[in-house]
User: What shape does this take?
Amino acid sequence: MASSTNLVNATAFQRLAAKALDALPSAVLLLAVTWLFSLVGGDDARILGMTTGAVLAGGYALWLWIWEAGSGKTPGNLALGIRTTSGNGHAPGLVPVLLRNALLGVSGVVVVGPVVLLVSNLWDKNHQRQGWHDKVAGTLVVDVRAGRDPLLTGGIRSADASGSTLAVPPTTTPAGSAAAPVTAVPGFPSSAVPQTASSPFQTVPAAVAGAPAAPAGAPVPAPVSPRRAAAAALTAGALPAPVPAPAPAAAAAPADVPQHPDDELEMTRVASRHRSTGVLVQFDDGAAVVVTGTALLGRNPATKPQETVGQLLDFADMGRSVSKTHLHLQADPNGVWVTDRNSTNGSAVVTAQGLREELEPLRPVLAPAGSTVFFGDRSFTVSRA
Assistant: This one.
């Protein structure tokens, strides 16, 4: 089965079959060595054979424990295409693997105890995510044939659409600089003045569209309105303009007469472009949607009583790591405000600079353009529409 970006929980059959394959070498070693020594004859030889077989089986169990703790692999896991991981998708570690195996061993007091533990994920409310022994040890078992391998892709929350380690979008800001990445505004030259990270504006247009660029080092002229430019053109003719007669003092215009509204026409256009609240949200599976106001995101999002939102984004998550109503989104000129709606598996925002912030329930956090929002085991990137 083709690999996907989503984590897929291992089935009860895979867990049970993998553990049976892991136990097979121990049983074979014990029986084979005991049988070989019994050929020599006598009870002493049989006891020696059983002891030798037990030592070899113990050595195999030790090797298996260390291998699974560091890589999530066992012979059974490899054969069934599954991996044992920690709760965050990394190598499980020695103590968790020892704990879950010890629980399986203790459950052997009851004949079917290990079998019940291995298939107990069937009764896990979180979509068969963990068995009882996994809950105690804090481990997961994932199917790396049907989904991605978190051990090779940076853990649960760090895979992009190709299943590889998440690459944080690069910025043009030099290392150690406080300047924010520059994004070109449509209709203006791309050579914008970079702003500091605290500035709400991503760009400042260098000149009005269509105007020639000023030579390097030349002083920047003050903005000229269309009316003033027309007046300047008239006075630039071959004949000198007639000198107007002095106006009566009573008719003199006051010094603080406001500029004509048309004088600010260009700046009005810039502000109109900047305040567009359309935000493009692109998910890790390639799907994309434009959020223009408020939206709810989840497996089956629903509004609260007296709550009104513009969009309901029904997100199909086969692993069911996404809650029914996981996130509230609010479009903003600088990105999107993200609020976790008391989700089961949490949410986080990672900026383009690599800064990560875990979301507290019901507290909105701004995810600026270029950042990545993780919700459950899934993610989406934020950009301007």
In short: The helical segments are 12-40, 43-71, 75-80, 94-106, 113-118, 132-137, 226-235, 265-274. The two ends are 34 Å apart (CA to CA). The first strand starts at residue 82 and ends at 86. Residues 32 and 180 are 68 Å apart (CA to CA).
